[in-house]
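Suppose you are handed only these lines of text.
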Amino acid sequence: MILTPSLVTGFPLIDQQHEQLFNIIDTLEIMASSDGSFRAVAEGTRKHLTPATGTVQPVVVRKVIERLMYYADIHFQYEESLMSYASPALTKLDGDQYEDFAKHVCLHHREHHSFSTTVTEYHKQVTSYCTLSPASIYVFVHHWVTEHIEKTDQAMCVWLRRSDAVAG
Ligand SMILES: [Fe+2]
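From them, the structure of the protein bound to fe (ii) ion can be written out as follows.
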C-alpha cells in the first residue's frame, strides 16, 4: 500500500504511523494471495505456509492481527491526544465552529472504536481456532484505513492546523 498524495497528512508522526499500518496491510495482502507463489515476507511469514496449498496457518493470522491491534491502538491514542491538545485553542472560535470540532472528535472516536471492535472480534475468532481468511481481513482493513485517512484524518488535520493558527 503506497502513501499516495490523498493519504499524506503532512504531520510526520501521523504519516509514519500510517505507514506502519500500510506495512501490515501489505502483509495481509501477501497472505491473501496465497496461491503458493508468495514473495518473501521480511518478517518470515513464508516459513509458516503450508507448501501444498499455500494456505496460511491460524497462528500466523493471529500474529498479524495482534500486530494490527498493537499499532492501531498506539496510533489511535496518539491522534486522540492531538485532538484533546487542540481543543482549548479552538474554544476561541465562535460557538458553532467549536461545535463542529466537537462533532468531529465524537465521530473520530466512534470510527476508531468501531475499527478496534471489529479487529478484536477477528482476534477472538482466530484464538478460538475458527478459520479466518486473510483476504476478508485485508479487504476490511484496506478499505477502512483508506476511507478513514482520506476523510476523517484529513479533516482532523485541518482542525489541528486551525488550532495552531488560532493559538498563534
Ligand atoms: Fe484517525
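What can we learn from it? Residues 79, 108, 112, 148, 152-153 surround fe (ii) ion (CB under 6 Å). Residues 5-163 form a domain with the Four Helix Bundle (Hemerythrin (Met), subunit A) fold (CATH 1.20.120.50).
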